[in-house]
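Same chain as my last thread, 199 residues:
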Amino acid sequence: VTLTKIRTFIEQYQTDFGLRECLLFRVQQKIVYLQDWKTHLLRTVHQDQARINILDNLDHETVTIHVDWTMKWLPTNYRESAKDHFTKTGLSWHIAYVVRNNFSSSFSNSFNTSFDSQASAHKYDSDENKYEHKVFCHVFDQCVQNAKTVVSIIRHIFLCLQQTLLNIKYVHLRSDNAGCYYGSEALLSVVQLLKETGI
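reply #2:
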């Protein structure tokens, strides 16, 4: 039984006008929910395929970086409501996840350099590729999550990569749809980042 058949059945056999309108509204709402779900699945498949294509085509001069603001870290009570959690302020965390294809073991020592922190690079082996991962975590006591902050963070990441991976010239930068990543200020800063870092 499809939702269209259910809608047709309700229209033909329901005599109470109020109940019929209520049921038709519910069916229409479920149709919209299903279409939204299909759209989400399709978008997820295409985005994942794009990510896979980028990883498959990484060369020795290219890395991919996924950036995102995480939930604020908060010292919390044992139990608190969602309302209490989301209205608090706390430390803002910005996470950058760097992946590169390690074609030879000669580069592995340079990627493990700790950038003034504990070494946290990890390796992942697939059939043909060896990927190395590094996570950059920037924690702020107080900051505005805008393009200026994001560009400063990306600049710092590029400078760290430039110090340890001398051959990196290109970056695939991925993020969510937050305005601080795709606004005009962030997009126009790409040329300046290239001049300052060479990446």
